[in-house]
Design goal:
Distance between the termini: 44 Å
Number of helices: 16
Bound molecules: iron/sulfur cluster
Number of domains: 3
Order of helices and strands: HHHHHHHEHEHEHEHEHEHHEHEH
Strand content: 5-15%
Number of strands: 8
CATH architecture of the largest domain: 3-Layer(aba) Sandwich
Structural class: alpha/beta
Strand order of the largest sheet: 2-1-3-4
Shape: globular
Length: about 325
């Protein structure tokens, strides 16, 4: 399982947009060139310890050369401690699947909700009618270890996770969490991993479902600030689908400094790494920006971002919702 990374592409690259756009490293063009050359040659670079795993350079590289996956490979190779050792070990054990996977009986299709138990209730909706909900460690993609400099754990567990999902016997799987969808698309492609079913992103699924229910949609006419998650950097094409989805339900995504390519982390990944001060700083910048945007609602897709920021959003007098909640409201469902 080898990363499709071409060092020559980086060595001859003139833009180095991966690093010059990085919101955390603050490198000049010259410094970016020096550091990316070390990365291309597989050498130690100080950026291996300074990278906060926001995933953004995957989106900034116009050549699909996977700079962030390369960084995580090298963090492990050079024994860089991205997070406190005990935290990493604890999480590696916590998400390890024990025992055999017992596949559920599936009628129409599968909705995969990652590890989030809180989503079980939130997907009790006509929007997801007929889909069998699947969650848990046996079907967990393990991409969280990208935040912890442990790409080997993801690779070791990949085959079994894909086998487990395949045992459900479906041709398509709807993924709620960006990170999971990114595993079966971008990550699998980068490592040449075969995926024997079609991954469907939540936004695409919701857009198509709402088009079927078009006559029941009551446009919401609200201005929302969107908190784009780090894992969406791996699948930027889905962000355009979100725009279509918002349009369909009458939602205006307000312009704000920290959205789209300039999105900022919710802080959860930084806290995992023990970067508490930076996490607070980033959250403050994000929340100040949300306030300035004059949005009425703050929308999340990542349940982890929601869990991290929703309390602070409420304290600002704004309502936090998941994208799927907004879609439910648009068809007249009650959302708590
Ligand atoms: S990762 Fe992409 S943007 Fe960065 S130096 Fe390599 S080719 Fe250029
Ligand atoms: S993952 Fe984020 S912090 Fe790390 S190098 Fe890429 S853009 Fe910078």
């Amino acid at each position: 399982m080898k990363l499709k990374y071409n060092p020559k592409t980086c060595l001859s690259c003139e833009e180095i947009s991966c690093l010059t756009n990085c919101q955390y490293l603050n490198l000049s063009s010259y410094e970016a060139k020096v550091e990316i050359e070390k990365i291309a040659r597989g050498e130690y670079s100080s950026l291996l310890k300074d990278c906060v795993a926001c995933y953004a350079c995957e989106e900034y590289c116009r050549y699909g050369n996977h700079p962030f996956f390369r960084i995580v490979e090298l963090q492990e190779l050079h024994n860089v401690e991205v997070a406190p050792k005990n935290v990493v070990e604890e999480l590696i054990n916590k998400y390890k699947a024990e025992g055999e996977f017992k596949p559920k009986k599936v009628d129409k299709g599968v909705l995969h909700i990652c590890l989030f138990p809180e989503l079980k209730e939130r997907v009790q909706s006509r929007l997801f009618e007929g889909l069998t909900v699947v969650r848990g460690r046996h079907v967990f993609c393990n991409l969280i270890y990208l935040h912890l400099g442990k790409i080997s754990v993801i690779k070791e567990r990949a085959k079994k996770v894909i086998e487990n999902i395949s045992s459900l016997g479906v041709n398509e799987v709807v993924f709620f969490h960006d990170e999971c969808y990114a595993f079966y698309t971008t990550f699998a492609e980068a490592y040449g991993i075969e995926v024997p079913f079609k991954p469907i992103h939540l936004f695409e699924y919701l857009y198509n479902k709402l088009k079927e229910l078009k006559d029941e949609i009551k446009e919401l006419n609200v201005k929302v600030a969107y908190q784009r998650p780090c894992s969406n950097r791996l699948i930027p094409e889905t962000d355009k689908v979100l725009d279509k989805l918002f349009k369909l339900i009458g939602v205006e995504r307000v312009e704000r400094k920290y959205d789209r390519e300039n999105s900022l982390c919710c802080g959860a990944g930084l806290k995992l790494q023990g970067r508490d001060k930076l996490a607070e700083e980033v959250q403050r910048k994000n929340l100040d920006d949300i306030v300035k945007s004059n949005a009425e609602i703050v929308v999340f897709n990542c349940p982890m971002c929601y869990a991290t920021l929703s309390k602070a959003v409420k304290e600002l007098g704004l309502k936090p919702y998941l994208v799927s909640d907004l879609c439910r409201i648009a068809i007249g469902e009650q959302v708590s």
